[in-house]
Design a protein that fits this description.
The complex is a heterodimer of chains A (283) and B (319).
Chain A: E1 10-22, H1 27-33, E2 39-51, E3 55-59, H2 66-73, E4 81-86, E5 89-93, E6 97-98, H3 102-105, E7 108-111, H4 125-135, H5 142-155, H6 172-184, E8 190-194, H7 202-219, E9 222-227, H8 230-236, E10 239-244, E11 247-253, H9 254-259, H10 264-272
Parallel strand pairs in A: 3-9, 3-10, 7-8, 8-9
Antiparallel strand pairs in A: 1-2, 1-4, 4-5, 5-6, 10-11
Chain B: E1 6-16, E2 21-32, E3 37-41, H1 48-56, E4 64-72, E5 75-76, E6 89-92, H2 96-99, H3 106-118, H4 122-135, H5 152-164, E7 170-174, H6 182-199, E8 202-207, H7 210-216, E9 219-224, E10 227-233, H8 234-239, H9 244-252, H10 293-297
The chains are: A alpha/beta (283), B alpha/beta (319).
């Protein structure tokens, strides 16, 4: 089974994960036409694991199931079967269902694709960053809370005065920094980054990717990185899984996968990625 | 000497506001020959889509052309773009679903376009519509299907067929593949390039992706904050970019052949300025690593394919 290899130092272990969606016509229409129920298999028996402090990238085109997997891992979507384990603790299995455990929840965070729809426009940045701290009851003292918010802003390259401002006052790249700061607020060990730079300009994308890598080093974070862009994945990932129609068609350490892709689909993705051999590297 | 197919000289576009006039394009000049693919590249706010919209006469009010001229085959078209839009200049936009009428079959839309612009009778137009579908790689048996029955890539092929139907001299394609998956993107770009080359139609390809520029265009124009900063043959610009913005843009683009997980991407600090707060002098100077005192005072003239004080003897000009 591809991707069935389990590492000893794995932080996240996903095995046999599946999710089906019912795409049948409405009941009455089925009754009239005699049509049967139809199911779409969005995720089909996917297994992989992520080593502590490393980045695992799931890459695939639209409809490949990569975002569904991300949503199941953070608990926004319920798997139909399979197990999800964090740090040796079960977060989902078929018998218990989703495990309701705040101490686990606190360790998982997510950075979404659109920095425009993922921040509440009516909240000041300071309140946005304070919310996870409040929700998980991390810091009681108001003064210490404020210091923590300033520290978070500093970590993502924003200034402490920015706590007083509203999301619309920031550019797309700065908003994505706010999203990252919010994800960091609960002291997570694991962050799912769902296409975090696909809405950003190239020069800003480089800033955000570098920031994510630096935070990973400083805070020993483990990332699941979702992307459709092979080149971005190459910069970010230690290990890569290639998804097609809900199935993992290939997975390997990043270097070998990029240099000698085995599956024809992986090769096709690589060949389709626009590239240029330029003098830019020295520029 | 014959005039180039398209000549744009000193094109300026402004958006009047209550307190100030926002200068969105500042004296853009370029030419385009028949059969040539010219890429416009830059980040959001660079003015690349606006340049396309100005040529087609599709500026959103209150935006207006405040200077310069646009000529197609020697004939001025600024201010009267309605006479050429759709017929002599075809357009392809990012989202094929909004370019197509959802209530009419693709065949109807093709036939209408052909009849309107080429004056064919219904039978000949239907015949031509079938041929066009063949050319863009769609089974002509699907001529009676509606846009929603096609995938995103196929819809964009249909939009290409529609744009080519009146046999235009120029196609302006604004981010035509940004909404598509990479595997489909490569096919659609190759198709667009081949069909235009075969017909001798020129293409202006607007994109934010340097990789797309490298693989699809003959010449490239790099825009920053409403100004042209560099132009040249694509192969030469890619091999040896000169303007610091072009260099930065290329270096910041993850390159599958060069990067790994240990790479720190060279980044350009800051972001594109808003039109309401354009810096004086060279508009790139606050983000530029090679900034000199003269850059803060005066914009470099556009000489020999680049607008930068690092090149040429113009650096001593008074500020």
């Amino acid at each position: 089974m591809p991707g069935g290899v389990m590492m000893d130092n794995a932080y996240l272990q996903v095995s046999g994960l599946s999710r089906h969606f019912d795409i049948s016509d409405p009941f009455l229409a089925r009754l009239l036409t005699g049509g049967a129920r139809r199911q779409l298999t969005a995720v089909d028996n996917v297994s992989f694991s992520i080593a502590r402090g490393q980045t695992y990238a799931l890459v695939g085109e639209s409809g490949s199931g990569k975002s569904t997997i991300a949503r199941m891992i953070v608990g926004l979507e319920r798997p139909d079967s399979g197990t999800i384990r964090f740090d040796g603790r079960t977060a989902f299995d078929e018998r218990q269902g989703q495990v309701q455990d705040n101490s686990l929840r606190q360790k998982l965070q997510m950075v979404f694709q659109s920095p425009y729809s993922s921040l509440n426009p009516r909240w000041r940045v300071g309140d946005i960053l304070m919310e996870p701290i409040r929700a998980f009851d991390l810091i009681a003292d108001p003064e210490a809370r404020r210091r923590r918010v300033h520290e978070l802003l500093d970590q993502v390259g924003l200034s402490t005065q920015d706590a007083q401002r509203y999301p619309h006052e920031f550019s797309g790249g700065q908003r994505q920094r706010i999203s990252i700061a919010r994800a960091l607020a609960s002291n997570p060990q694991f962050i799912v980054c769902d296409e975090p730079t696909s809405a950003l300009d190239v020069s800003v994308q480089a800033q955000v990717l570098n920031l994510l890598k630096q935070l990973q080093r400083d805070l020993q974070l483990t990332y699941l990185f979702i992307s459709h862009d092979m080149a971005v994945v190459r910069v970010m990932a230690h290990r890569i899984g290639v998804l097609k129609n809900g199935r993992l068609v290939e997975e390997n350490a990043a270097g070998p996968l990029i240099e000698s892709p085995q599956d024809p689909y992986t090769r096709m993705l690589m060949e389709s990625t626009p590239r240029f051999a330029g003098g830019a590297a020295s520029g | 000497m014959t005039a180039p197919l398209l000549e744009v000289s000193d094109l300026s576009v402004e958006f009047p506001q209550r307190r100030q006039r926002l200068q969105a394009l500042d004296r853009i000049s370029f030419t385009l020959e028949a059969g040539e693919v010219l890429g416009f590249v830059g980040e959001s706010g660079a003015g690349k889509s606006l340049t396309g919209a100005a040529i087609m006469g599709l500026l959103e009010p209150p935006g207006r052309i405040t200077g310069g001229r646009i000529t197609l085959q020697g004939q001025r078209i600024d201010g009267q773009a309605e006479s050429v839009r759709g017929r002599r200049i075809g357009m392809i936009f990012q989202d094929p679903l909004t370019s197509l009428n959802p209530l009419r079959t693709v065949g109807d839309q093709l036939v209408e376009t052909i009849q309107l612009h080429l004056g064919m009778d219904a039978g000949a137009a239907a015949q031509r519509a079938g041929e066009l579908l063949d050319e863009v790689g769609i089974d002509r048996a699907r001529i009676g299907a509606y846009p929603h029955e096609f995938s995103g890539g196929m819809r964009q092929r249909i939009v290409i067929a529609l744009a080519l139907a009146p046999e235009p001299e120029l196609i302006i394609a604004d981010e035509p593949t940004t909404a598509l998956d990479v595997s489909i993107q490569a096919q659609v770009l190759a198709l667009l390039r081949r069909l235009c080359k075969e017909r001798g139609a020129a293409v202006i390809l607007i994109t934010h992706d340097m990789g797309v520029i490298a693989e699809t265009t003959d010449r490239v124009a790099v825009l920053y904050a409403g100004r042209l900063v560099e132009t040249g043959r694509t192969a030469e610009v890619i091999a040896a970019p000169r303007h610091p913005y072009t260099k930065g843009l290329m270096a910041a683009t993850p390159n599958l052949d060069l990067v790994s997980v240990d790479t720190v991407l060279p980044q350009i600090p800051g972001s594109m300025p808003s039109l309401a707060a354009l810096p004086p002098g060279c508009r790139f100077h606050p983000r530029c690593g090679d900034v000199m005192p003269v850059c803060r005072r005066t914009a470099a003239p556009f000489i020999d394919g680049v607008a930068c004080h690092l090149y040429g003897a113009q650096t001593q000009e008074a500020g």
